[in-house]
Write a structure and sequence with these properties.
The structure is a single chain. With 513 residues, this protein is of the alpha/beta class. The chain folds into 2 domains: 209 residues, Domain of unknown function (DUF4445) (Nucleotidyltransferase, domain 5), CATH 3.30.420.480; 264 residues, no CATH class. Helices cover 31% and strands 21% of the residues. The protein contains 14 helices and 20 strands. The strands form 5 sheets. It has a 6-stranded mixed sheet, with helices on both faces. Strand 16 and strand 17 form a beta hairpin. Helix 5 packs across helix 12. It comes from Parablautia intestinalis. Keywords: Membrane, Transmembrane, Transmembrane helix. This is DUF4445 domain-containing protein.
Length: 513
């Protein structure tokens, strides 16, 4: 077992950074969640599952419906990746390929079935281990048993007894996800979503027996797929909103879930707006010369070490081994650092060694700038690591990041205009999702991704979509609030906003306005 400790669970290679069979992705969807303090569970019999279905990652949690105890957790890759890495490719496959929709639905249903069965087996194993431990150590203090699992409500651990049934006693399942993934799961062809004006092909909560969707292990469970807010602002964003609203009351709040498709929700008093910003893949490591997801080998944090003028760059690598690439949080740190150090200017231009020296950049950073000719064209790049395992930040990488930053920030500013409010007047800005949890706030502000407001207003909240999905499972009242939210929140299509194009160009400047 020791020899496999740092190996990929899929291919078993030590150096793997996320191969095609790497099922346990490095995502904070696997991290324990915590419900809001005032959240009340409505007791029910049996067990339930909450699923968060993303384009890349699928996560599930098994719950005891009686007391809201967490019994099992599973996270893995969305098997629809064979049809394309992004939402647009999946929708095209559903629309154009023969049996494309049916095949993608079947892949996802099979995956969720397998995850459900895995969570139940996980819970059974805990129960068996619990019995063995209690029988052998009768005087063990309460709260120390190996069978105990962390419950989200109040953080107390407790033993769980599970009754075996054909479907393991799973009574109901809630599902959230982006609009396209929910439609594919339901077997709905995304005809309206794929074309302007980009509206969802379903509006309200969908309730259906598992067997009607093709489930086998979960065939008797009642499936509840939460509604989207509008367009590409899906049920996952609604779950984020529902989780935040459990705590917040009539104040200025903004929630930003950053990914390939950034989802932004703003509430100021009775005014509620939401939009989706096509940020592209750069913030998740895509479209970057040596970009990758947050997996072992990825640079996820960059800082300066030493005193001027002898400062040099230091990179943290996930897993502690040699660097093989850079993920989104590392990219933002790197560009912010090079901007402050005058290696990059506000337009995103990567300076030459001599230009950087004249601008006042530390000498060791200037020496890391390389320039060579590719097809008779100059290509400039910056060495982030050492030459034994080189990872470079190229000039084009900075441009890709600028496009993502401008899309997200412009979306935030458009919504703020709707309520005639400056970001400084917001009470809180929630950063949701795996990326929002790990991004450096100071670096995000430095490059203009986030507004420069007091840092205490930022809340890095983690997997709010998963938490909201669980709340909808465990409380009918919480689910009804989310359903009301889907009707009350006004969806804003950024492409139709006259100010969006000018604002997008303005926010291409690093450092924001």
């Amino acid at each position: 077992m020791t020899g496999l400790k740092n190996r990929c669970p899929g291919c078993k290679r030590i150096s793997c950074s996320g191969c095609g069979i790497f099922q346990k992705l490095n995502t904070n969807k696997q991290v324990k969640i915590q419900f809001p303090e005032n959240f009340q569970i409505e007791q029910d019999a049996g067990m339930g599952i909450s699923f968060d279905v993303g384009t890349t990652t699928v996560a599930g949690m098994l719950w005891d419906l009686k007391d809201g105890s967490l019994l099992g957790v599973e996270a893995g890759a969305n098997p629809q990746a064979a049809f394309g890495a992004d939402v647009i490719s999946r929708m095209q496959a559903a629309m154009e390929k023969e049996d494309g929709l049916k095949r993608m639905q079947a892949l996802l249903v099979k995956k969720l079935d397998e995850m459900a069965q895995g969570m139940v087996e996980q819970a059974y194993a805990k129960e068996r281990l619990c019995g063995e431990e209690i029988s052998s150590v009768q005087d063990r203090p309460a709260g120390s048993g190996l069978c105990e699992m962390q419950g989200s409500k109040g953080g107390h651990a407790k033993k769980q007894k599970i009754e075996r049934k054909k479907n393991a006693g799973i009574k109901k399942v809630t599902v959230v996800g982006n609009t396209a993934m929910c439609e594919i799961l339901l077997g709905i062809k995304p005809a309206k979503l794929a074309r302007a004006p980009f509206v969802p092909d379903y509006e309200n909560t969908v309730r259906m027996e598992g067997k009607k969707l093709g489930f086998q292990f979960l065939q008797d469970a009642a499936f509840i797929v939460l509604p989207p807010i509008g367009g590409y602002v899906g049920a996952d964003a609604l779950a984020v909103y529902g989780c935040i609203k459990q705590t917040e009351r009539n104040c200025g709040i903004m929630a930003v879930d950053i990914g390939t498709n950034g989802e932004i929700i703003l509430e100021c008093g009775e005014e509620k707006y939401a939009c989706s910003a096509a940020a592209g893949p750069a913030l998740e490591g895509g479209a970057i010369s040596q970009g990758m997801r947050a997996a072992p080998g990825a640079i996820d944090l960059i800082s300066l070490n030493g005193n001027f003028p002898m400062q040099d760059i230091v990179c943290r690598v996930i897993g502690g081994g040699p660097a093989v690439g850079i993920c989104g949080s590392g990219l933002i740190d790197g560009v912010a650092l090079l901007l402050r150090a005058h290696v990059i200017d506000e337009t995103g231009y990567l300076r030459s060694r001599e230009e950087a020296r004249r601008a006042g950049a530390p000498e060791k950073l200037c020496r890391r700038i390389e320039e060579k000719s590719v097809s008779k064209l100059p290509k400039r790049r910056f060495l982030l690591t050492d030459e034994k395992s080189p990872v470079y930040l190229e000039a084009e990488d900075v441009r890709q990041l600028q496009l993502s930053v401008s899309a997200i920030r412009s979306g935030m500013e458009i919504l703020l205009r709707k309520v005639n409010r400056k970001a400084s007047r917001l009470d809180r800005i929630y950063l949701a999702g795996a990326f929002g949890c790990y991004i450096g706030i100071e670096s995000g502000i430095a490059i203009g991704l986030f507004p420069d407001v007091p840092r205490e207003k930022y809340v890095q909240a983690g997997n709010l979509a998963g938490t909201g999905a669980a709340m909808a499972l465990l409380s009918k009242k919480a689910m009804e609030k989310m359903e009301r939210g889907s009707r009350e929140i006004i969806h804003v299509e950024l492409a139709k906003e006259s100010a969006f194009r000018d604002m997008f160009l303005e926010h291409m400047s690093l450092g924001g306005l």
